[in-house]
């Protein structure tokens, strides 16, 4: 059985900046707006005082959209902490959501993401090579972004951070963090409600003193006097299609109250731990139905690094014998072009404005480009598998990468251009 000291130390946090947003100030607070839901046995926690059962095989007892070996260990410890938290009264308190989640990860032997700060936990995942995505605040945008993350199958143990501001700055209570857990089937099984595990804030204080489902338990609130409780609550109602029900087609908020984990109203970040992604990439993920059925999860499709995708109306034309290409409509070539090409264009009398445009005559582009794999002035980056010049990487890039770029906050115009930051491209390909 898990044991811990009742004087569990509060972690120290350092100021940092999250690469996906302009800057993040130090945060130690955790939300004042969330949910809670059904227990492991399906009974409302508000009616419970007994311990949550931790089954010997959670894959048989619970329904998961995606779970890996590491995710299974995290989930078991999330259940264990539901039983243990009340014995450590510094945890079921306000401004402790990140500390509670850090603690569950530490129970699993993972401590490199630990912090009392929501934003710093997200930053720690990114620094470790994990993928951190900010969901657009629209149903269609959030749905499109989720589809780029393992086909919309968020693995158990994924971190979900919600912030009042897009840069996650603010006071205590302006942010919250949770982890992805199990899902509850709805209707014909194509619809499910994905649940998050977190230090829930929703309690009778927030509802004129009346307890309702998805609040912290009556036992915790009335008998123990706690303001928070580590528990599972509904997050998103998802609909899927396909023989296995794996294709994500729709989402609705399933939160029982206004909450900063709502991607349609707040700034919500999804952080995939690299431990989980590695297992998914190596076909160690499964989907379960909660009735004993376990189905291998399709290996996530990866971004096709190195692929050149010409825009509508243009086609790839081979240049030389080293694998070089230009996108052309038969008359014009699609840029942007390297500085070395621009210099040649200017030397040949093309004019500065015309030479720095993104559309040249095909004949000029062929003449200035050269016959190598990359245009003159650029070289092939074997890690990125794209041609680079200084801090720039050249496309045009395929739609899957454009979608990932937009999800990561690159901006519609920039993401649909053919020149990206070399460093930013590298972060998308992790």
Structural overview:
The radius of gyration is 25 Å and the shape is elongated. The strands form five sheets. The protein has a seven-stranded antiparallel sheet, sandwiched between helices. The chain has a four-stranded antiparallel sheet with strand order 15-16-17-18. A three-stranded antiparallel sheet has the order 1-9-10. By secondary structure, the protein is an alpha+beta fold. It contains 13 helices and 18 strands.
Summarize the structure.
By secondary structure, the chain is an alpha+beta fold.
Secondary structure blueprint with pairings:
Layout: H1 58-61, E1 63-67, H2 69-84, H3 97-107, H4 118-127, E2 131-134, H5 139-147, E3 159-163, E4 175-186, E5 191-200, H6 218-223, E6 229-241, E7 247-253, E8 267-272, H7 274-281, E9 286-289, E10 294-296, E11 315-319, E12 324-328, E13 332-334, H8 339-347, H9 352-355, E14 359-361, H10 362-369, E15 379-381, E16 386-389, E17 392-394, H11 399-407, H12 412-415, E18 419-421, H13 422-428
Antiparallel strand pairs: 1-9, 2-8, 3-4, 3-8, 4-5, 5-6, 6-7, 9-10, 11-12, 13-14, 15-16, 16-17, 17-18
Shape, principal axes of CA atoms: elongated
* Biggest pleated-sheet summary: 7 strands, antiparallel
| Count of extended strands | 18
Briefly note the structural class of the backbone: alpha+beta
Radius of gyration (CA) equals: 25 Å
Please work out how many helical segments DSSP would assign: 13
- What is the total number of structural domains? 2
Strand content: 15-25%
């Amino acid at each position: 059985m898990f044991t811990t000291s009742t004087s569990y130390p509060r972690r120290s946090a350092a100021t940092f900046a999250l690469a996906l947003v302009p800057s993040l100030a130090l945060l130690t607070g955790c939300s004042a707006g969330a949910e809670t839901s059904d227990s492991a046995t399906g009974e409302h926690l508000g009616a419970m005082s007994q311990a949550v059962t931790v089954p010997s095989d959670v894959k048989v007892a619970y329904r998961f959209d995606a779970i890996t070996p590491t995710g299974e260990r995290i989930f078991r410890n999330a259940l264990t902490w539901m039983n243990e938290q009340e014995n450590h009264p510094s945890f079921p308190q306000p401004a402790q959501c990140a500390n509670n989640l850090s603690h569950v990860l530490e129970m699993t032997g993972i401590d490199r993401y630990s912090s009392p700060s929501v934003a710093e936990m997200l930053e720690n995942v990114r620094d470790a090579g994990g993928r951190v995505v900010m969901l657009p605040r629209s149903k269609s945008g959030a749905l499109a972004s989720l589809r780029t993350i393992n086909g919309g199958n968020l693995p158990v143990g994924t971190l979900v951070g919600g912030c009042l501001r897009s840069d996650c700055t603010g006071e205590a209570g302006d942010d919250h963090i949770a982890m992805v857990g199990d899902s509850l089937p709805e209707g014909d099984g194509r619809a499910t409600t994905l649940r998050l595990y977190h230090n829930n804030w929703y309690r009778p204080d927030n509802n004129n003193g009346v307890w309702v489902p998805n609040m912290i338990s009556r036992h915790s609130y009335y008998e123990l006097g706690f303001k928070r409780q580590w528990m599972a609550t509904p997050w998103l109602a998802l609909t899927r299609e396909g023989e296995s029900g794996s294709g994500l087609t729709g989402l609705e908020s399933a939160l029982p109250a206004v909450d900063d984990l709502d991607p349609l109203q707040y700034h919500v970040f999804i952080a995939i731990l690299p431990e989980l992604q590695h297992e998914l990439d190596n076909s160690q993920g499964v989907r379960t139905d909660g009735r004993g059925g376990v189905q291998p999860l399709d290996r996530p499709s990866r971004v096709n690094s190195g692929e050149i995708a010409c825009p509508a109306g243009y086609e790839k034309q081979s240049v030389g014998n080293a694998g070089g290409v230009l996108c052309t409509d038969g008359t014009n070539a699609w840029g942007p072009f390297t500085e070395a090409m621009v210099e040649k264009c200017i030397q040949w009398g093309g004019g500065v404005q015309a030479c720095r445009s993104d559309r040249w005559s095909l004949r000029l582009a062929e003449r200035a480009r050269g016959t190598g794999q990359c245009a003159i002035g650029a070289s092939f980056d074997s890690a990125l598998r794209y041609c680079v010049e200084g801090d720039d990487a050249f496309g045009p890039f395929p739609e899957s990468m454009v979608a990932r770029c937009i999800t990561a906050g690159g901006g519609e115009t920039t993401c649909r251009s053919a020149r990206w930051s070399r460093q930013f491209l590298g972060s998308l390909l992790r």
